[in-house]
Amino acid sequence: MAILKVINYGDQVLRQDAEKVHKVSAKIKKLIADMFDTMYAYNGVGLAAPQVGVLKRVFVLDCSTEENPMPQMVFINPVIIKKEGAIVSREGCLSFPNVYTDVKRFEDVTVKYMDERGKTQVMTAEGGSLLCRAIQHELDHLNGILFVDHVMDRFGTDELLKTNNLPTIDPAMIKDEPELDQLLVG
Ligand code: ZN
Q1: What is the residue extent of each domain of the chain?
Q2: How many angstroms is it from 146 CA to the middle of ligand 1?
Q3: Mean pLDDT in residue range 165-169
Q4: Is 146 helix (H, G, I), strand (E, B) or coil?
Q5: How far, in Å, from the CA of 8 to the mean position of ligand 1?
Q6: CA of 7 to the centre of ligand 1 (A)
Q7: How far, in Å, are 13, 22, 114 from residue 161 at the CA level?
């Protein structure tokens, strides 16, 4: 068990595609344990392997709150197979210390993934819940996508980024999301 270094925004590793995991090997199990240690050490809700410099399709979540205890969750090779509705969600990211901003997300998602025992699972998270938003946020990391790519207020967020000595938003990376835009105004 170890606390790993979390890579900050600006490092190109966060912009790369992660590779599929073929087997939940001892090495992957150790990575998962270390990712939980790291996530808790930084008081995070979720952490994706590229954030600790490992380009594998793995993320971990713990969306527990005092009112709503939930188990620790491990997602390997996740794929969103259904998405509906739109919401605006205030998010942060361990790779962006102290930066919180509103982003566009789907309200309901169904994700298919492999758990830490190598078993295929399907989970639906609804109502723009923390779990639902965290799944989308962490899965993006496996595709080199960051939460600021879904930003609502680009220039306001740039100010926050500058204050925290992070690079500003690359406008070329901002997602064109007509489906979400239409739902949000509609
Ligand atoms: Zn993140």
Answers
A1: 12-183
A2: 7
A3: 97
A4: coil
A5: 10
A6: 10
A7: 19, 37, 35
> Looking at 138, 159, 177, 179, which residue is catalytic?
138
pLDDT in tens, 129-155: 999 999 999 999 999 999 999 999 999
pTM: 0.96
Active site residue 126: no
Fold designation for 12-183:
Peptide Deformylase (3.90.45)
Task: Give 179's contacts (C-beta < 8 A, 6+ positions apart).
Answer: 86
Going by pLDDT thresholds of 50, 70 and 90, the confidence category of residue 24 is very high
Q: Which two tokens stand for residue 119?
A: 């078993």
- Whose CA is closest to 59, among 163, 129, 172, 145? 145
Supply the mean pLDDT for the chain. 96
Q: What is the mean pLDDT of residues 28-49?
A: 97
CA 77 to chain centre: 13
Write down the pLDDT at residue 67.
Answer: 87
